Amino acid sequence: MKMVSAIIKPFKLDEVREALNEAGITGLTVTEVKGFGRQKGHTELYRGAEYVVDFLPKVRVDVAVMDEQLDQVVDAIVQAARTGKVGDGKIFVMPLEQVVRIRTGETDASAL
Amino acid sequence: MEMVNKGDVAWMLTSTLLVLMMVMPGLALFYGGMVRAKNVLSVLMQVMTTFALAVVLWAIYGYSLAFTEGNPYFGSFAKLFLSGVTLESLADTFSEGVKLPEMAFIAFQGTFAGITAALIVGGFAERMRFSAVLVFTAIWLTFAYLPIAHMVWGPGGWLLGDGALDFAGGTVVHINAGIAGLVGAYLVGKRIGYGREALTPHSLPLTMVGASLLWVGWFGFNAGSALEANSTAALAFLNTLFATAAAILLWLADEALLKGKPSMLGGASGAVAGLVAITPAAGTVGPMGALVIGATAGVVGLWGVNQLKRWLGVDDALDVFGVHGVCGIVGALLTGVFTAPSLGGTGSADFSIASQLVIQAKGVIVTLVWSGVVSFVAYKIAAALTGGLRVAEEEEREGLDIVAHGESGYRF
Q1: Taking the CB of residue A79, how many other CB atoms lie within 10 A of it?
Q2: B109-128 tens-digit pLDDT
Q3: In terms of C-beta density within 10 A (0-12 exposed, 13-18 middle, 19 or more buried), how is residue B232 classed?
Q4: What is the mean pLDDT of residues B49-54?
Q5: Which residue of A has its CA nearest to B201?
Q6: What average pLDDT score do residues B252-269 get?
Q7: If you count residue pairs, one on A and one on B, with CB atoms under 8 Å apart, how many are there?
Q8: CB contact under 8 A, A44 and B200
Q9: Which helix (H) or strand (E) holds A34?
Q10: Considering the entire predicted model, what is its pTM?
Q11: What's the CA gap between B209 and B271, in Å, rounded?
Q12: What are the φ/ψ torsions at residue A102 (nearest 5 degrees)?
């Protein structure tokens, strides 16, 4: 199993969610995060004080998948989240040890 | 024959309410929105309690020391605890034979004492110990506000006798509070992270609401200072409308020119700048003079919170000196110019701009020096009595709301 963690532009969330749905993914977790890569921030001005705001708002989508689904899921996210401009984000794929469905106690494949 | 006119009384009571609204919640929100969320309650608290403290001291001895005959610098204790003030007691207006119930005058002036005290907290916001704020306020009110109010407005007052023009309190309120805030900001030191971290306003919508309430309430502050519901009040009213509008536009235009974008904080600050500047002038300059005064305040105020602030090297957190001090000085001086009848003002035919400017400048300097020195001493005493002006470093990082008041402004 793998944990796929995708940092995407916030307005792409709906598209990514639909694409994942079409790829057969039925559950995901979304967090609002801040970050930067190559995309520059902006400058804010409050009276005499100027601030460079490096952090940009992003959305993180976490999805747990079986190994067989991995490529399809990564492709789906990439297609849906891409705009072609700097700041589109990144996908991190991490090995996932165990998954447990809390309500029933089912594990791994039966929990996904 | 001494006459009390119901219209005058109604207007003065209304004006007093408007000035109260300027503080609660006007100034509270104006300042509150400008600090970080972790300190919003501390600012609201400091504004509210300094106002309340000033009003109580006003009731006990403040009114007496400001508005009774004594010497050129202080009144007397003749009306301590408002002794002798009854339902029949009368206060003078600017018109011969026209009187107000003295209680109405006491209330009106009491809100002025209160708002001046509350303005100061902007200078040392986000790091001063609450107890020190209160001790300072009590001392400063007694030895800076009361004598300056007496000198400018009280019977036998030194600056009044010299012919200083300060219709609604450019010196008594704004320059006074401005320098007190600057001295406090200097003594308490810069906030942790100043110049490196982003110490940004947490709610500019609140600041704008506060500025709006300040503008509306200021009509009571300025037009109420006419002490009658008459054409002078109408003039002050009109000037308060015009000057503020001009100041907003000029601040924003200047900001767009110099910084690239006109900002909400700039607009709100511009409004306050214009209001401060027209305060001493409201009842004696003409409406066109008001436009010029407002426009000037917009431009000079922007300079005050940028270049001057950097030059002074002091963390005047909410720009009490940059806006109230600087624009109070601008207003005080321009009052000496635009009161001239040739420029549309109500000055007499032999009005001399040059000599009036000298008198105005004297008032400005006396206020700056007297209030500056008294503030310095008052802060030192407050520090000694309360264990230090500033909260501990980890307390400042955590936020005054939790540390001083055990509360959080917001729960998400």
Answers
A1: 11
A2: 999 999 999 999 999 999 99
A3: buried
A4: 98
A5: A46
A6: 95
A7: 27
A8: yes
A9: strand A29-35
A10: 0.91
A11: 12
A12: -65, -40
Give the torsion through C-alpha atoms of A13, A16, A17, A22, to 10 deg.
Answer: 170
Residue with token string 């500047």: B277
Question: What confidence score (pLDDT) does residue B1 get?
Answer: 55
Two tokens at B164? 């200083």
Residue in chain B nearest A48 by alpha carbon: B306
Q: DSSP assignment, residue B371?
A: H
Tokens of B18: 């408007």
Output the CA torsion B214→B279→B371→B369 (10° steps). 140
- Tell me if B356 sits within 8 A of B165, measured CB to CB: yes
Average pLDDT, chain A: 93
CA–CA gap between residue B272 and residue B376 (Å, rounded): 26
> CA dihedral in degrees (A53, B317, B22, B215; nearest 10)?
-60
**Domains with residue ranges and CATH for chain A:** 2-110 (3.30.70.120)
Straight-line distance from the first to the last Cα atom of chain A, in angstroms, rounded to the nearest whole number: 10
List A95's β-bridge partners, or say none. Answer: A2
Place of tokens 């001291």: B57
Residues B267, B250 contacting (CB under 8 angstroms)? no
Q: How many CB atoms lie within 10 A of CB B346?
A: 17
As to burial, measured by CB atoms within 10 angstroms (0-12 exposed, 13-18 middle, 19+ buried), residue A52 is exposed
**B199 contacts in A (CB within 8 Å)?**
49
- Chain B interface test: which of A47, A50, A53 (most B C-beta within 10 Å): A47
Buried b (16+ CB within 10 A) or exposed e, B245-255: bbbbbbbbbbb
Tell me, what's the pLDDT at B7? 97
Q: Give chain A positions within 8 Å (CB) of B198.
A: 44, 51, 53
Given this model, what pLDDT does residue A44 score? Answer: 80
C-alpha span between B168 and B275 (Å, rounded): 11
pLDDT at position B291 is 98
The answer to whether B198 contacts A47, with C-beta atoms less than 8 Å apart, is no
Which residues from A are below 8 Å from B260, CB to CB?
45
Strand order through the sheet with B3-4:
B3-4, B98-101, B90-92
- Mean pLDDT over all residues of chain B? 96
Give yes or no for a contact between B297 and B325, defined as CB atoms under 8 angstroms apart: no
Q: Are B294 and B246 in contact (CB under 8 A)?
A: yes
